[in-house]
Amino acid sequence: MAFGLSLVEQINRARSDLRLGVPIVIRGPDGPALVMAAETATTERLDAVRLPGLVLVLTRHRAETLKARPYDGDVARILVPRDGGLGWLRAMADPADDLRHPMKGPFQSARDGSADLHRSAIGLVKTAQLLPAALVLGAPPPELTAGLGLTELPLEPLARELAGASIMAPVVNARLPMVASQAGRVHIFRPRDGGEEHYAIEIGQPDRAQPVLARLHSACFTGDVLGSLKCDCGPQLNAALAQMGAEGAGVLLYLNQEGRGIGLANKMRAYSLQDQGFDTVEANHRLGFEDDERDFRIGAGLLRQMGFSQVRLLTNNPRKVDMLNAHGLEVVERVALKVGETAQNARYLATKAAKSGHLL
Ligand SMILES: Nc1nc2c(ncn2[C@@H]2O[C@H](COP(=O)(O)OP(=O)(O)OP(=O)(O)O)[C@@H](O)[C@H]2O)c(=O)[nH]1
Ligand SMILES: [Zn+2]
C-alpha cells in the first residue's frame, strides 16, 4: 500500500506512544499482546491491565540485581503480584532506592512459551531511551485493544528491524572554520529508520586512497558541553580535533549515542547510582543495561559512505577497533588518545581498563 504506514513508521509511532505512556500491541504467533513501558505507566492504565498473566519483563542484569531468576536467558518475565501497584512497578524498574529497600521478592516467574515477544518489547523500550522494563499482557480482552487506535506491530518484522543496521542518508554539509582548523566541514546524516541524526566533522581534504586519521566520538553532554570532570570526553574531543588540525586532515564522527547508547536521562540515573558507590559498569547493570549499548555499525557505515576504507583510529577502546575491522573498515593503526585525566575520573578510567578492556 503506497499511502499506508510502513513498518518503520509504525515502529517510530510505537516508540513515541511508549514514551507518552500509551500502550501498544505486538502481534506474535500466539496472538496479540498489550505492551506498556514501566517507566511511563499510570495507575489508571496499570489497573486496567492488572489481569491474570500480566508480566513485568526485565533484562537479565536488572533481574539479577533483584535476585530474580532470568529463565529466558537475557530477559526475565516476572508475574505482577495482585497488590503490585505503581510504587512496586517503579521500584522494580528503577534502582534509585534499591539500597534503602533491597528486598522486593520473592518473585514468581512466567516460564511457559516463547519469550521472543517480551524480548522485542524490551528492545523497543530501550530504543525509546526509557528504563528497560515493560509490562506485557498476553491475550488481552478485546475491549483493551479494539477500536482504540493503538499502534500494532507484527513481531517478526519488528524483531528483524530492531536488530538491523541503520541506513544513513546525507542531508547537508557546510564549511565550519574552527579553533582546531580553519578547514572544517560539518556533514549531517539522517537515518532512514527515524533514529538519531549523526554528524561527521571533516578536517581538510583527506585523501580517500590513504588511511585517514579518524575518531568515533560518542556524544557526552556533560563532558563535551559542561566540562564534566567525571569523564575524559571533552578533552578527548578537543585533542582529536587538534591533532587532525595539526596534521591537516582527518574525520571525526560525532555519534549521538549519549551515555554509551542509553540516553542522557538514563546516564544521569547511572551517575546517581555512582554517587551511591557503584562503578560505571555496575551502575549500567543495576539499571538493566549492558555496559555498552552502542551500535558501532553506524560509525563504520558512515566512514564507508564518505569514501574511506582505511583508518588510523584515535581510541583506547579495542572494541571500536574490532567493530570497524568487522564492518568493512581496515584499522591500520590505533593512535592512543590519553588526555583529560582528573582526580574525579581516575576511578572511571580504571574501571574501563579493568572491566571494559580499555588500554591504559
Ligand atoms: N552509561 C554511562 N555512560 C557514560 C559514563 N561516562 C561517560 N559515558 C558515555 O560514554 C561515552 C564515551 O565514549 P567514548 O569517548 O567513545 O569512549 P570510549 O568507548 O571509552 O573509547 P575511547 O574514548 O575511544 O577510548 C559517551 O557516550 C559518554 O556519554 C557513565 O558513567 N555511564
Ligand atoms: Zn563523557
Automatic annotation (TrEMBL):
<dbReference type="GO" id="GO:0008270">
    <property type="term" value="F:zinc ion binding"/>
</dbReference>
<keyword id="KW-0378">Hydrolase</keyword>
<dbReference type="GO" id="GO:0005525">
    <property type="term" value="F:GTP binding"/>
</dbReference>
<feature type="active site" description="Nucleophile">
    <location>
        <position position="294"/>
    </location>
</feature>
<feature type="binding site">
    <location>
        <begin position="258"/>
        <end position="260"/>
    </location>
    <ligand>
        <name>GTP</name>
    </ligand>
</feature>
<keyword id="KW-0686">Riboflavin biosynthesis</keyword>
<dbReference type="GO" id="GO:0003935">
    <property type="term" value="F:GTP cyclohydrolase II activity"/>
</dbReference>
<feature type="binding site">
    <location>
        <position position="220"/>
    </location>
    <ligand>
        <name>Zn(2+)</name>
    </ligand>
</feature>
<feature type="binding site">
    <location>
        <position position="315"/>
    </location>
    <ligand>
        <name>GTP</name>
    </ligand>
</feature>
<keyword id="KW-0342">GTP-binding</keyword>
<keyword id="KW-0479">Metal-binding</keyword>
<dbReference type="InterPro" id="IPR000926">
    <property type="entry name" value="RibA"/>
</dbReference>
<feature type="domain" description="GTP cyclohydrolase II">
    <location>
        <begin position="173"/>
        <end position="335"/>
    </location>
</feature>
<feature type="binding site">
    <location>
        <position position="236"/>
    </location>
    <ligand>
        <name>GTP</name>
    </ligand>
</feature>
<dbReference type="InterPro" id="IPR032677">
    <property type="entry name" value="GTP_cyclohydro_II"/>
</dbReference>
<feature type="binding site">
    <location>
        <begin position="215"/>
        <end position="219"/>
    </location>
    <ligand>
        <name>GTP</name>
    </ligand>
</feature>
<comment type="function">
    <text>Catalyzes the conversion of GTP to 2,5-diamino-6-ribosylamino-4(3H)-pyrimidinone 5'-phosphate (DARP), formate and pyrophosphate.</text>
</comment>
<feature type="active site" description="Proton acceptor">
    <location>
        <position position="292"/>
    </location>
</feature>
<dbReference type="InterPro" id="IPR036144">
    <property type="entry name" value="RibA-like_sf"/>
</dbReference>
<dbReference type="GO" id="GO:0009231">
    <property type="term" value="P:riboflavin biosynthetic process"/>
</dbReference>
<comment type="pathway">
    <text>Cofactor biosynthesis; riboflavin biosynthesis; 5-amino-6-(D-ribitylamino)uracil from GTP: step 1/4.</text>
</comment>
<protein>
    <recommendedName>
        <fullName>GTP cyclohydrolase-2</fullName>
        <ecNumber>3.5.4.25</ecNumber>
    </recommendedName>
</protein>
<dbReference type="GO" id="GO:0005829">
    <property type="term" value="C:cytosol"/>
</dbReference>
<feature type="binding site">
    <location>
        <position position="280"/>
    </location>
    <ligand>
        <name>GTP</name>
    </ligand>
</feature>
<feature type="binding site">
    <location>
        <position position="320"/>
    </location>
    <ligand>
        <name>GTP</name>
    </ligand>
</feature>
<comment type="similarity">
    <text>Belongs to the GTP cyclohydrolase II family.</text>
</comment>
<keyword id="KW-0547">Nucleotide-binding</keyword>
<dbReference type="Pfam" id="PF00925">
    <property type="entry name" value="GTP_cyclohydro2"/>
</dbReference>
<keyword id="KW-0862">Zinc</keyword>
<feature type="binding site">
    <location>
        <position position="231"/>
    </location>
    <ligand>
        <name>Zn(2+)</name>
    </ligand>
</feature>
<feature type="binding site">
    <location>
        <position position="233"/>
    </location>
    <ligand>
        <name>Zn(2+)</name>
    </ligand>
</feature>
